[in-house]
Amino acid sequence: LAPVLDNRFDIVETGFGKKNEALLNQVSLIRGEGLRHVPQLVMIMIEGKNGQDQLFTMIHNNAHSNISSLFDEESNRDYANDDLTLVRGVLGSYPEAYLSLTENEIPNLVKTLQNLNTEEDYIALLDKFAVRRSSPEFWSFSDRVHRWYQKDQPIEFGLLDYNRFENR
C-alpha cells in the first residue's frame, strides 16, 4: 500500500534533525489522566534551526468506556486511556490553544507533555510556550499560522475559527 498511502501528515522531512522528529513522534505515545486539562486541538508552530516554520496539530483524543448514549458523557469518560495524536499541518478548524517554540525547545516540550499531571502543570506549559489570546502578539501570530496553512495546504486552507480558543 505504500505507493498510495498519503503521508503528508507524518512527521518526516520537516527540516528538523532526526532526533527532534523522533521526539515529536513520541507525543503520540502519551496517554493518561494527566491529559485531562489539555484542549481538543492545539496548534504548535516550531521554528527550525534553518529559520523555516513548521506547523503541527496536537489532538487530544477522549477515551470512553461506553458511547451508547449522547447524554451524561462524564460518567462514561475513561481519562486513564486519553491520548494525544500529533500530525504535521492543520487538522481541524477550531484551535483552542497556540504554542510557539524553536527546534531547540522540542525536547523540553515533549518532556513537559509527558509529565503533565495537574492543571497547574498544563498552565506552566502555557506559561512557557503559549501565544495567548490576550497577548499583543496574538494576531500577528495568527497571520503567521494562516500564511503557513495557505502555502502548505492550499486546497484545505480556510480561516481558523477562534470561537473555542481558551484564555488561560
Rg (C-alpha, Å): 16 Å
* Helix and strand composition category: alpha+beta
CATH topology: Nonspecific Lipid-transfer Protein, Chain A
Order of helices and strands: HEEEEHHH
Amino- and carboxy-terminal Cα gap? 44 Å
Helical amount: 25-40%
Number of β-strand runs: 4
Low-confidence stretches: none
Look at the structure and give the CATH class. Answer: Alpha Beta
Which strand-content bin applies to the residues?
15-25%
Count of helix runs: 4
The strands making up the biggest β-sheet line up spatially as 3-2-1-4
What's the CATH architecture name? 2-Layer Sandwich
Please, what is the average pLDDT? Answer: 93
The largest β sheet comes out as: 4 strands, mixed
What is the overall silhouette?
A: globular
Structurally, how many domains make up the residues? 1
InterPro entries: Fatty_acid_cis-trans_isomerase (IPR010706)
Protein name: 9-hexadecenoic acid cis-trans isomerase
Keywords: Isomerase
GO molecular function, one term: isomerase activity
Descriptors:
isomerase, 26% helix, four-stranded mixed β-sheet, globular, 9-hexadecenoic acid cis-trans isomerase, Nonspecific Lipid-transfer Protein, Chain A, alpha+beta, 168 residues, single chain, isomerase activity
Description:
This protein has 168 residues and is α+β, with helices and mostly antiparallel strands. The protein has a single domain (18-66, 73-152), classed as Nonspecific Lipid-transfer Protein, Chain A. The protein has helices at 18-26, 106-114, 119-129, 138-152, and strands spanning 41-47, 53-61, 83-88, 97-102. The chain has a 4-stranded mixed β-sheet with strand order 3-2-1-4, covered by helices on one side. Strand 1 and strand 2 form a beta hairpin. The protein is globular and about 45 Å long. It starts with 17 loop residues before the first helix and ends in a 16-residue tail after the last helix. The model has no long low-confidence stretch (mean pLDDT 93).
